[in-house]
Design goal:
By secondary structure, the chain is mostly helical. The protein has 16 helices and 2 strands. Helix 2 crosses helix 6 (113-134) and helix 10 packs antiparallel against helix 11 (200-227).
């Protein structure tokens, strides 16, 4: 018997609604004092993100458990809170100095720099409160490492900033992006798997998958920054070249970068072999990451 599944676009729309409902439930309302910070937090969280990280977390848990384990939406939301905080801070004048994010003015353009900094800080700390209530300390430590300074997101951001003064190299490029983008994407899979009680084999497979899609995600991001308009991206196009960022097209050229992204997608698919049909949506998500246009 053939089981019908919703098209990817319908599936993603449904998952985004579920994640948004969970985020709305978790975040303090705008009417909660101090109102300004809660407005600023919600402004960026509900700016129209794709929710890739929480959806990856959910699908990893489903691949392991066959259903949604209790508390998995709170685990997934902690990742989106961390991700949104990083975007708010990335856009600040001291870092990427961007006026546009997800097609809307960035947080500091609406609320001022001080409140944007505090909104990012608040989302970061709230993410750990949410995760600590929903999961074990092992998962809290896992997320802290992925967001931190030893091979985590902050490490990648430091390498990225310091790399603006250096000649582009393959080694530095990989060091930047395996940490800056890849660490949190890999963590998304690992948190979902761990919360669902994954075996060692399952956790290893999802970790490898996360590493491959993390690298593919950044390669495609770098390609899109060169090839798409600001309107298509929902953020300022061409910023990488203007700020002398070390990117995949800068090091390898566009065609080789596209080939590398396709290779990472193939490796991501291979990593899911032990899941069979249970990895169907994760395979689709790997395809989406490589084929997206924004």
């Amino acid at each position: 018997m053939t089981v019908s599944v919703a098209p990817l676009s319908e599936y993603l729309a449904a998952q985004v609604k579920l994640v948004d409902a969970a985020l709305d439930r978790l975040l303090p309302p705008e009417s909660e004092p101090p109102e300004t910070i809660h407005r600023a937090m919600r402004y960026s969280v509900f700016a129209g993100g794709k929710r890739i990280r929480p959806i990856l977390c959910l699908e990893a848990a489903r691949a392991v458990a066959g259903a949604d384990p209790e508390g998995i939406f709170d685990v997934a939301c902690s990742l989106e809170l961390i991700h949104t905080y990083s975007l708010i801070h990335d856009d600040l004048p001291a870092l990427d100095n961007d006026d546009l994010r997800r097609g809307r003015p960035t947080s500091h353009k609406v609320f001022g720099e001080a409140m944007a900094i505090l909104a990012g800080d608040a989302l970061l700390t709230f993410a750990f409160e949410v995760l600590a209530r929903a999961a074990s300390s092992t998962l809290v430590a896992e997320l802290a490492r992925a967001a931190g300074t030893v091979g985590g997101m902050i490490a990648g951001q430091v390498h990225d900033i310091e790399g603006e003064k250096l000649a582009p190299s393959a080694g530095l490029l990989e060091r930047i992006h395996r940490a800056k983008t890849g660490a949190l994407l890999r963590c998304s899979l690992r948190l979902g798997a761990m919360h669902a009680g994954a075996s060692t084999e399952q956790l290893d497979a999802l970790t490898r998958y996360g590493e491959h899609i993390g690298l593919a995600f950044q390669i495609v991001d770098d390609i899109l920054d060169v090839t798409q308009t600001s309107e298509q991206l929902g953020k300022t196009a061409g910023k990488d070249a203007a700020q002398h960022k070390i990117t995949f097209p800068a090091v390898y050229g566009l065609e080789e970068s596209r080939r590398m992204a396709a290779q990472q997608r193939a490796l991501a698919h291979e990593a899911l072999a032990c899941f069979g049909d249970a990895g169907f949506r994760l395979r689709q998500l790997a395809d989406l990451i490589v084929e997206r246009s924004s």
